[in-house]
Specification:
This protein has 128 residues and is of the alpha/beta class. The protein is 28% helix and 16% strand. It has a 5-stranded mixed beta sheet.
Length: 128
C-alpha cells in the first residue's frame, strides 16, 4: 500500500496582494496629493470681514424680495428691464439662508425663461 503524497498548502498570496492594493487605493484617495504650503506663509483671516454682495448680484431676502445694487425690485422682469442691464450670460443670485427653496426655484425658472444661460448661486463657505 502506498501512502498518499502529502501536498503542501500554498500560501494565499492573492489575498495578500488584494489587501495591499486596497490599502494603496485607500491612501491615494484619503491622502493629500498636492504639496503643502510653505511654513513661512501665513494666510489672511477673513472672520472679521463685512459681507457684501457683488455689485452685479441679484439679492433675494427671506421673504422673496429682490434687490439689485441697493434698489428694491418688484419682480424678475424689473431686474431684466433695468437700465444697466447686460447680457444674461451669467446671473448671480445671493439668496438668504431662510428663503424657501421653492421660491428660489421659481425665480431661477423665470430667469431661465427670460434667457439666462448660467445662474450662479453665491453661498457662504464654512471651514469649521
Amino acid at each position: 500500500m502506498r501512502r498518499p503524497a502529502v501536498r503542501s498548502r500554498k500560501e494565499p498570496t492573492i489575498a495578500l496582494i488584494n489587501i495591499v492594493f486596497l490599502m494603496l487605493v485607500f491612501f491615494m484617495v484619503a491622502g493629500t496629493l498636492s504639496p503643502s504650503l510653505d511654513r513661512d506663509i501665513t494666510l489672511v483671516e477673513t472672520d472679521a470681514l463685512e459681507g457684501r454682495e457683488p455689485p452685479d448680484a441679484l439679492v433675494i431676502d427671506k421673504t422673496g424680495e429682490l434687490r439689485h445694487r441697493g434698489a428694491v425690485l418688484t419682480s424678475v422682469p424689473a431686474f431684466l428691464d433695468r437700465p444697466d442691464s447686460r447680457a444674461l450670460d451669467v446671473v448671480r443670485l445671493m439668496p438668504d439662508r431662510a428663503l424657501p427653496a421653492a421660491e428660489l426655484l421659481r425665480i431661477s425658472a423665470q430667469l431661465r425663461a427670460a434667457g439666462a444661460k448660467k445662474i450662479m448661486i453665491s453661498t457662504e463657505r464654512a471651514l469649521r
